[in-house]
Design brief:
about 10% strand; two-stranded antiparallel sheet; mainly alpha; about 50% helix; 10 helices; single chain
């Protein structure tokens, strides 16, 4: 007669963050026992299976469907728009996999400052999504542009971050973290003063009704400077 078995599964949970910090791996042990009664003399076999938990990116990055709205139009309308560079569409569709040249990277960064009102929502969302893929030489100019946009286009930034449906809380956090990283590099040792200057510029560029959102965003940046 075959003996009952107890299978113990050890799941190695690797929690990977986005940005400069990442959680340390944690070990979780789950034990399952069959419903039947197990005699003391029963053989016990142990198996260890390593399963990777979804990363921060996998859990928080939202892939936008072609029917989802960006601004006043569905994504598919932008993807068929001959006025938008094909390379930008490819980057959007491939989740950054085709973001492989300095020329394209800089053009993508510059696009957020476009005065093309009709296509601006697409450019903003593409710029925002590129923060998920930013690393190395691409990250620095991206975050410099993000800070400049926050200072000079404050009402537009706040509007997109708070009303655009495809912009998530994680995207909001990425904006704040990217600006915090730029401040920590360009104003090393004077981060608090630089953040205060940014705060004053953003308040100056907005109405009193928007000041609460400015303060909330500044607080988020500050949390990444801690």
């Amino acid at each position: 007669m075959k003996s009952n078995k107890i299978l113990r599964f050890a799941m190695l949970l690797t929690l990977t963050g986005c940005g400069p910090s990442a959680d340390k791996p944690k070990l979780l042990t789950i034990e399952t026992v069959s419903d039947s009664v197990i005699p003391e003399s029963a053989d016990i076999e142990t198996e260890v299976i390593q399963l990777a938990e979804p990363t921060y990116y996998e859990k928080n990055f939202h892939r936008i469907g072609e029917e989802e709205m960006i601004g006043s139009k569905p994504l598919k309308k932008y993807l068929s728009d001959i006025g938008i560079p094909e390379k930008f569409k490819e980057i959007f569709i491939t989740d950054g996999d085709s973001l492989n040249s300095e020329e394209t990277s800089l053009a993508l960064i510059d696009s957020i400052f476009s005065d093309d009102f009709e296509r601006q929502p697409f450019y903003f969302v593409l710029f925002t999504r590129s923060m998920w893929w930013a690393d190395g030489s691409f990250a620095e100019p991206l975050y410099i542009a993000a800070k400049r946009y926050a200072e000079n286009e404050t009402p537009t930034l706040l509007s997109y971050l708070t009303t655009e449906k495809v912009i998530s809380d994680a995207d909001y956090s990425n904006w704040a973290e990217g600006i915090a990283m730029e401040i920590s590099i360009s104003a090393e040792g004077l981060e608090k003063e630089a953040l205060q200057n940014l705060r004053e510029n953003m308040l100056q560029n907005t109405s009193k009704q928007e000041h609460a959102e400015v303060e909330k965003f500044i607080d988020k940046i500050d949390s990444h400077l801690q």
